[in-house]
Amino acid sequence: MKTQAILFNLLLLTMIAKSSLAQTAIPRDTSTGLIAYQGVVKDDSVAKEELYARAKSWILKTLKSSDNMVQLDDKDFNSITGSGTILLDKKSSGPYSYQNGKLNFKLTVQFKDGRLRYTFENFTYWGEVFALMQSTPMKTVNSGLEELTLPGNGKKSVMDNVDEKMKALVLSFTNAVSKANAAQKDDW
Length: 188
Prior knowledge:
By secondary structure, this protein is of the alpha+beta class. About 35% of the residues lie in helices and about 35% in strands. It has 4 helices and 7 strands, in the order H-E-H-E-E-E-E-E-E-H-H. It has helices at about 1-20, 50-60, 155-175, 180, and strands spanning about 35-40, 70-75, 80-85, 90-95, 95-110, 115-130, 140-145. Strand 6 and strand 7 form a beta hairpin. The chain is elongated and about 55 Å long. The model is unreliable at about 5-20 (pLDDT under 50).
């Protein structure tokens, strides 16, 4: 009985250690190696002007704050470049918590008849690190995701949060520009 309990505890500890070491597979640009969420949305029946209008509408509705803006608005409907900021969840890792996190990024959308290509890149993280049971931050971080260093298992915790939020943002974008959602236009 005692041997079974010891074996069970060893197995449990091994599983916990493996799960804490597992890294989120953050997507990277194949040419630069930097973090980037990229993709193509195809619909041969839609002109680039319509795809452009859908993408611009999503950008204006979704990335609406004083520090988010469309920086380059191509009048020939070839591309849109803008920046955005999203809020990250409070996360804890060991004796530290990571709070008030914000993720800034650049969004580029390029258009051709029947398809568009999007790229979310140039990520910068801003947040505060709190030690256990402290009410004032011990460190304020303002860093590119590539160079991010945090105490404890903080980088993994923050990167998991970034990946979760960015995947949701990409899904929202692709749904908004896809053909399936085009029929939801307000035709009053």
